Amino acid sequence: MKDATHKQPAGQLMVALAGNPNAGKTTLFNALTGLSQKVANYPGVTVERKTGEWRADGKSIQLIDLPGLYSLDATSLDEHIASDVLLGKVADVAKPDAVIAVVDATNLERNLYLVTQLFEFGVPVVVALTMIDVFEKQKHEIDIGRLSKLLKVPVVAVDASEGRGIDELADAVASAIASPRDSAFVAEESDSANAKIFARYAFISEVVQKSVKHNDKAAHDRSEKIDKILTHRVFGLAILVGVLLLVFQAIFSWAEVPMHLLETGFGAVGDAARAQMPEGILADLVVDGIIAGVGGVLVFLPQILLLFLFISILEDTGYMARAAFLMDKLMSRFGLHGKAFLPLMSSFACAIPGIMATRTIENQRDRFATILIAPFMSCSARLPVYTLMIGAFFTGQTVLGFLSLGAALMLAMYALGIVVAVIVGFILKKTLLSSTPAPFVMELPPYRVPDVRTVLQNMLTRAWLFVKRAGTVILAISIILWALAYFPRTEAVNAEEGSPAVETVQLQNSYAGQLGHLIEPVIRPLGFDWKIGVALIASFAAREVLVSTLSIIYNVGKDETEESPTLISAIKGAKDEQGNTVWTPLTALTLMVFFVLAMQCMSTLAIVRRETNSWRWPIFQFAFMTLVAYGAAFMTYQGGKLLGLE
Amino acid sequence: MDVQIFSVVLIIAGALIYAASGMVKKVRAFRPKGECGNDCGCGSKSKKAVQ
Lengths: 646, 51
Fold this sequence. Notes:
The complex is a heterodimer. Chain A is built from 28 helices and 11 strands. Chain A is an alpha/beta fold. In chain A, β5, α3 and β6 form a beta-alpha-beta unit. In chain A, α9 (235-276) runs antiparallel to α11 (301-317), α10 (281-298) packs antiparallel against α18 (452-471) and α19 runs parallel beside α24. Chain B is mainly alpha-helical. Chain B has a domain at 1-31. Helices cover 63% and strands 0% of the residues of chain B. Residues 35-51 of chain B have low confidence and may be disordered. At the A-B interface, α10, α19 and α27 of A face α1 of B.
């Protein structure tokens, strides 16, 4: 329903509903208006505006629902509009006679921050306290009368879904309008933005201390004690590194058996399909294209399951927020916005949701800087590449006598992405995207035992996405790549089919082979041959396609009478035309470094194009990431060779 | 045409169509938007909004 021209009848009271997102504002709005809301946009912008009629004590009150807000700093559009509504500056919207501040009791400090800002608008405020039942279940008690006295505004506990407190709220609004009180808190106009924030939180802290009783003090104290260690700038970081090493170590050791079973299983399926099907092109497609391509990626399912199992556990216990806090300290030293951390954290799963999450960053320059560095975070699509390389060349070795080299390398790859992101972010913030860092407050959730259901659900959701991708995008690309590696068939090859040398020649002469040879001079300084070149080009569609491409190339290039080898054994045994070993540990390390830093993802570029509304940024991002990746890979390979590594 | 070749051509054509439709969707995402909506990252920074 559009209501762009809606006007308030003369004499009708206007009350605005303000509150943090998820504070129960919409539930209360619906309870008060009986779901009779009218939806429109604020004039000139696409921010939704909801209005409705609230019948209280026989009087008609027009209720306007402001956008969900954390503050009224007027830095984002939502905050700007809410400020304008409260000041009576929005066309067709009368200045409110009162504001109902919906406050979530379980997040009292954060919610009261907005309330202290509402005081400054000179409009009577009534606090509607929601989630009281949850708050009490958490073993806290709140003295509502005392809270009301300290805030100098009426405070009413409401349960909108049950209809409790609604009449009291109407009385409180009427009394607040009839006899407005002085504000309990007004920030000094002369104070800086940071000083105002600290003054507000000091006031809130005093109010909460005097009105809330925590009966779980022991647990609270314990939590604070744990935080003193886990968020310590030295011990905290050391513990974070230790936790990540343990996670990677577990991923490698626990996934080894299921991964081997899957590899053997897909190999057996390929051999069985070859045996059952009549010899010919269809059998080649099914075995060397579909089974090798999709199976080559699906064998990494155990690693993906374990990675997301650990991420979910760390998130649900509250530890991930502490890790975010630690990293934020580090990033802020390099001028990155505090709000950049959560989008960057999301990018460890996939850069796309991470980039979309940058919408919470108000300053456009900060937002673009975060978008440009988000793809440096090692997403889950890189995991199969790292695992393949580590599995082939770095298993069974230890560092310092006890630490698995594989786990250490995996951590090093994640760390490399973070370090380069911070450096690039710093350079961007000093040059193209310079701006003053905005203040940022991070809320740390309490520690808790992880919920098994939530953890399993998160893990299975991510695993399903991985399997779905293997069955759709990777299947399609595998078929196309197989065709590129299989055609054109030459007469000479057909005449001598079955000889390993002939298969190799066929692969070299294929479209994929021609493409690989075309780019070989560019990638040769990185230690990569043309087969790796083909895989690098294909992986632009999706990073994990590198694995399926190598799987297809080594399957197409083998003798048909051979049993299907595992990809790891195929890579280790691969020889070039002169009979030299193609892959060495140094080649594997170089490829991993390239993959950490390269923008090998078309979907990410598409989302950057959309989010920045410009071609300039995705092109710039692709160019600088490719240059950085090439430079780092070149230094790794050539530097390694100079040091005598192989 | 041989049944095997026919099947392979069909499978490759299917894969190409699937990949091409995916590409078309991505190219659409690359296009600039005429106006800002809920699903537009630039929405909160549109010129209109700033005015």
